[in-house]
Amino acid sequence: MNPMRDRFTKDVDKSVEKYTSSISYDKRLYKQDIAGSIAHARMLAKQGIISEKDAERIVMALTSIRDEIEQGSFVFRDDLEDIHMNIEARLIEKIGDVGRKLHTARSRNDQVALDMRLFVKEAITQIIVDLKGLQSALLDVAEANRDEIMPGYTHLQRAQPVLFAHHLLAYFEMLQRDVERFRDSLKRTDVLPLGSGALAGVPYPVDRDFLARELGFSRISQNSMDAVSDRDFIIEFQATTSITMMHLSRLAEELVLWSSAEFGFIELDDAYTTGSSIMPQKKNPDVAELARGKTGRIYGNLMAMLTIMKALPLSYNRDMQEDKEGFFDTVDTILSTVEVFTGMVSTLTVKGEVTRRAADEGCILATDLADYLVGKGVPFREAHVIMGRLVHYAVEKGKTLRDLSLDEYKSSSHLFEEDVYNVTAETSIAARNVPGGTAPEQVAQQLTRARKIVQGGDG
Ligand code: ARG
Questions:
Q1: Nearest atom of ligand 1 to the alpha carbon of 324
Q2: Which of 86, 170, 249, 310 has the fewest C-beta atoms under 10 angstroms from its C-beta?
Q3: Residue 458 pLDDT > 60
Q4: pTM for the full model?
Q5: How is the chain split into domains, by residue range?
């Protein structure tokens, strides 16, 4: 019979066992669970709650259980509900009654909170490293194409010319905020819950600061009831990941558009595109599309977690076991998405002649020509009206602003001179020489700053 069934007269129904079991997915917490148990056993001995000799045997057995799991010889049992029970049962199987002492001054409620916090901390640390890798890939492409010009868009309509590097650096900024958000959420995750017991604390002289040091936490929780029922750190992780995925879905969308025949701004490497089973000519940006799609699933995991926690009374409730599957899915998805994006971005080719042409077509310099008139003393609003009429005229004639004769210009304002033809995409870009603007000088400074950030300096 199950070790926790002593107050009952029979075993749980098979359907209940299956329904309540979490071992199929919480086995992923084995490393954290064993690390927590080792620290707990050492603390119990240090405080004289168990003997040093018993602690030694427990630690040795736990270490060998970890090896069994890693070598694949450990047998996970569904009837033992979760990873905590599975490891403890094996411990007792290995060293007998001594193993029964490990759970002194502990509950699965503070144990699972500990395991999840350790897991989230590791995940955040890895994600930050990987996000920096993606930032670095974006920077490489921006630097390699630092002179390329493209149309900047609003409403997905050509708006003003920009440097291609400036456009990519916008994604660098988004990812930098993500890195900062992950770092910030790490502070609130980095709190040791162990020692809270089931909910009220434990009636033993435990040393929680020792546990925190052993397990690498910088703080201990301050309220045992909160500690066993707080899942904010998982919600924050899911929210932060959702924002990152939202950013990646925007980049994905641009890569899908840019690699289309209609835009033709970039070419994705063969290794990062897929073919069609029916149309031999197709080269599909499936990676970008899937990232866009997976973003929906990640939002779903956040919503699920918020809903699981909604209106739960203090303290631990079994509902909280439902925190795990969506969480693991979110961790796996963000890590694989960032990894594949790093490869996709670093191998793409920018077609500078196409982006340059697109930045030169139509009436994209209308704002600059309005600014030209402002330079000759026309108030901006009036210049805007003049240019609006001129664009209307050009469109009616089936021309672009560039095609208009000086007489045509002059008929809308006598202030236009021959030098109106000196206004180009390059002068438009160079004129925007304000901090954060697209002028080459500004973008060069931003590239240097960004490089410093990914290299670890002030980032
Ligand atoms: N498997 C449980 C979870 O993930 C562990 C805690 C169980 N505690 C309890 N009192 N049943 O939340």
A1: 4
A2: 310
A3: no
A4: 0.95
A5: 20-104, 114-353, 358-454
